[in-house]
Amino acid sequence: MNGLQGVSKGKGKNTSRRRLLEDELRLIQEQRVAIQRQLELAKSDPVAFAASRGKPAFGRSPPATTGIKRLTDGLFETRESKRARIEHERNRRVNAIWQTCNSILKALRKPKEAFPFLTPVDAEALRIPDYYIKIKRPSTL
After folding, report:
1. What would the pLDDT profile of 76-100 be if each residue is shown by its tens digit?
2. What is the rounded distance in angstroms from the CA atom of residue 51 to the CA atom of residue 61?
């Protein structure tokens, strides 16, 4: 018996509601299959099942040679997942720094008084032959 009998196959709100219900049903079915696999694993190999759930089986922890570390919440973390987590956090911080720098540069370029600093100095056109002798590191915004 289909749980979607009361929802028509017409157009409008019922169609979108039907799609939502179908997606939810698919998700529940996938969860059911995953739970069945876990039960089969628990029956066949309780130690592997406990390790996959993040709990030691019968007081045992995973061997240190596997590269698995126990976290504070009782779960285990592999070296690869830790490396990926750290890399993700690093990238997030670097992006935040670049965004801050970009906003600072925009604020510096905005005032009308900033126009002389927006383009490099052309020492030849301005007839300043000793400009690069006196200014060692010229900079522009």
Report:
1. 667 788 888 899 999 999 999 999 9
2. 8
